[in-house]
Design a protein that fits this description.
This protein has about 350 residues and is of the alpha/beta class. It contains 11 helices and 14 strands. The structure holds S-adenosyl-L-homocysteine (SAH).
């Protein structure tokens, strides 16, 4: 029988589990603290448990492996990229970005992705599998442990579509913001989706306070379809309604993301259409000059054009920023480090 993933039990579940093997409740508190506060990677470290209990845990449970196998530090800004190997050999990547307000970690929610966005490196090999809550948490734990600095913000914008791994993703958010764990405020957590409408609506009803970012990328249904296959399934209008619903239910302003692709979605008509979409909404627009990947022929607009695009939107009353590029020297764009490893030989 395979071992149970002890790091994916929430506080209550761990208590029930530990009671079910005949141990006292305070043991489960100790174990939870070892896993989610002291960030232990093995049962051996849990020195306030008896040797017999540690051996028993070792036999029946596992702390899923999220092992750092590559670490790149940018020379151009305070950004570090990590490649982690999972127990089954899958690779995932995470990014640490240091800001003056704190340390932000960008994590992956799946190994690979099946959403197929045309400009994204993460999706090229398709979906391998979804990650367990423990595997999402431990990306953050490993980075916090390695740097010795508290992680204050988390963005779920690495490889994968979080709303295609719904239950594990929601559990992860609860555990990450649990006072018995790292206790990261939900207001400091952002998750990005390509627009899986039914799960955006479900998420709105979870009673969470996280920020939802929508990958928009096209200013019309037609344009969106060219870049994002998911648009064949959900009409732009439905996606926007789901965003409005999220805002109504949570009071959290939506962030729209828009990867600027030269000659594709950076035209004057796009400014007009985008203004029409965003003007009536309480939202923020993040422009991301596309990070070219070698498998596709997309180019980013030059700096001047991107600025012009932004200025026009601003003049139309849109709340907009161009996202500062980070770690451009270390395979900064989603999935590029993992991809480079996968194609190294
Ligand atoms: N599946 C989620 C999270 C993935 S990535 C989503 O689609 O939102 C986070 C953001 O980076 C998304 O907006 C994604 O479209 C964007 N992105 C992916 N590859 C990119 C690239 N090469 N250049 C610029 N943005 C990219």
């Amino acid at each position: 029988m395979s071992k149970k993933d002890i790091c994916s039990y929430n506080y209550e579940e761990l208590r029930a589990e530990i009671e079910s093997i005949g141990e006292k409740t305070f043991r489960s508190k100790q174990i939870y603290e070892w896993l989610h506060v002291k960030l232990a990677g093995s049962f051996d470290e849990m020195t306030n448990l008896s040797k017999a209990l540690r051996e028993r845990l070792e036999k029946e449970y596992e702390i899923p492996k999220v092992e750092m196998i590559d670490h790149q530090i940018s020379q151009v800004d305070p950004t570090e990229k990590f490649l982690f190997e999972l127990a089954d050999g899958n690779m995932i990547e995470s990014v640490l970005m240091k800001y003056n307000y704190g340390n932000s970690v960008c994590i992956s929610s799946q190994a690979g992705c099946r959403m197929g966005c045309r400009f994204c490196a993460s999706t090229i090999g398709g979906l391998e599998r979804s990650l367990a809550p423990s595997e999402m948490l431990r990306q953050i734990y490993q980075i916090q442990k390695m740097t010795g600095e508290r992680v204050s913000n988390v963005v779920v914008m690495g490889t994968g579509e979080p709303l295609d791994n719904y239950d594990n993703f929601v559990k992860f958010i609860h555990m990450l913001s649990d006072e018995h764990g790292l206790n990261i405020s939900q207001r400091n957590i952002t998750a990005s989706t390509c627009g899986v409408v039914p799960n955006m609506r479900r998420l709105a009803e979870e009673g969470l306070q996280i920020t939802l970012a929508l990958s928009l990328h096209g200013s019309s249904q037609e344009k969106r379809k060219k870049l994002m296959p998911v648009a064949n399934k959900y009409e732009l209008e439905e996606v926007l309604e789901a965003c409005d619903y999220y805002f109504r239910k949570t009071g959290r302003r939506i962030t729209f993301e828009y990867s600027l692709v030269a000659g594709v979605n950076d035209q004057p008509e796009d400014v007009k259409e985008l203004t029409g979409i965003l003007k009536k909404r309480n939202c923020h627009l993040n422009l991301i000059p596309v990070n070219p990947i070698k498998e596709r022929d997309y180019k980013k607009p030059d700096r001047k054009n991107a600025l012009e695009f932004k200025n026009k939107l601003e003049k139309n009353g849109i709340n907009v920023t161009i996202r500062r590029e980070r770690g451009s020297d270390i395979d900064g764009a989603c999935g590029q480090l993992r991809r480079r490893h996968a194609t190294a030989d």
